[in-house]
Amino acid sequence: MNKVYVAKLGKAVGLQGHLRLFIDSDFPEQFKKGAIFTTNRNLILKVLECNLNKDLIKFEDYEDVDLAKKLTNSELFTTEEATKEYCKLKENEFFWFDLISCEVFEDDLKLGKVKDIHRYPLNDYLEVETDFNLVERKLPKNFLIPHIFGDFIDKVDIENKKIFVKNSFDILENS
């Protein structure tokens, strides 16, 4: 099962088991009553209530402050399957886990493979592990492509694990 990190739990708030919720996901709608998450300590937690306006969450069987305190600083994970079920994507939006390991092409030239995704304040960036043939030509082993449709990303084909880009070979050469 592939786990996807989505949030961290902060300190207990009040006496009824509420915890501060620090969401690290583009899909806050997945934090709803009945949703199930696992923690980095392999606990399975079922959401009893969630107030996104106040960034508070409460879990079944942790309904008092002393029990809730045991969850402080836990990281919450969901599955790729649950993410796909509960999180609806708009046009040209993709799950990170679907983009990772996609091959990157500019025209007919294979630039490499997506190794990771980095979030910066203005844009997300694809970290690309440069194709072996290009590394042999003394180009950098890794480089970043801004995840901006139209400017750098032309088309994403998740089914075939391919991303078609433009203006990106220049970035590689100048990295």
Automatic annotation (TrEMBL):
<keyword id="KW-0690">Ribosome biogenesis</keyword>
<dbReference type="GO" id="GO:0042274">
    <property type="term" value="P:ribosomal small subunit biogenesis"/>
</dbReference>
<feature type="domain" description="RimM N-terminal">
    <location>
        <begin position="6"/>
        <end position="81"/>
    </location>
</feature>
<dbReference type="GO" id="GO:0005840">
    <property type="term" value="C:ribosome"/>
</dbReference>
<dbReference type="GO" id="GO:0043022">
    <property type="term" value="F:ribosome binding"/>
</dbReference>
<dbReference type="InterPro" id="IPR002676">
    <property type="entry name" value="RimM_N"/>
</dbReference>
<comment type="similarity">
    <text>Belongs to the RimM family.</text>
</comment>
<dbReference type="InterPro" id="IPR011961">
    <property type="entry name" value="RimM"/>
</dbReference>
<dbReference type="Pfam" id="PF01782">
    <property type="entry name" value="RimM"/>
</dbReference>
<keyword id="KW-0698">rRNA processing</keyword>
<dbReference type="InterPro" id="IPR056792">
    <property type="entry name" value="PRC_RimM"/>
</dbReference>
<protein>
    <recommendedName>
        <fullName>Ribosome maturation factor RimM</fullName>
    </recommendedName>
</protein>
<dbReference type="Pfam" id="PF24986">
    <property type="entry name" value="PRC_RimM"/>
</dbReference>
<dbReference type="InterPro" id="IPR009000">
    <property type="entry name" value="Transl_B-barrel_sf"/>
</dbReference>
<dbReference type="GO" id="GO:0005737">
    <property type="term" value="C:cytoplasm"/>
</dbReference>
<feature type="domain" description="Ribosome maturation factor RimM PRC barrel">
    <location>
        <begin position="96"/>
        <end position="166"/>
    </location>
</feature>
<dbReference type="GO" id="GO:0006364">
    <property type="term" value="P:rRNA processing"/>
</dbReference>
<comment type="subunit">
    <text>Binds ribosomal protein uS19.</text>
</comment>
<keyword id="KW-0963">Cytoplasm</keyword>
<keyword id="KW-0143">Chaperone</keyword>
<comment type="function">
    <text>An accessory protein needed during the final step in the assembly of 30S ribosomal subunit, possibly for assembly of the head region. Essential for efficient processing of 16S rRNA. May be needed both before and after RbfA during the maturation of 16S rRNA. It has affinity for free ribosomal 30S subunits but not for 70S ribosomes.</text>
</comment>
<dbReference type="InterPro" id="IPR011033">
    <property type="entry name" value="PRC_barrel-like_sf"/>
</dbReference>
<dbReference type="InterPro" id="IPR036976">
    <property type="entry name" value="RimM_N_sf"/>
</dbReference>
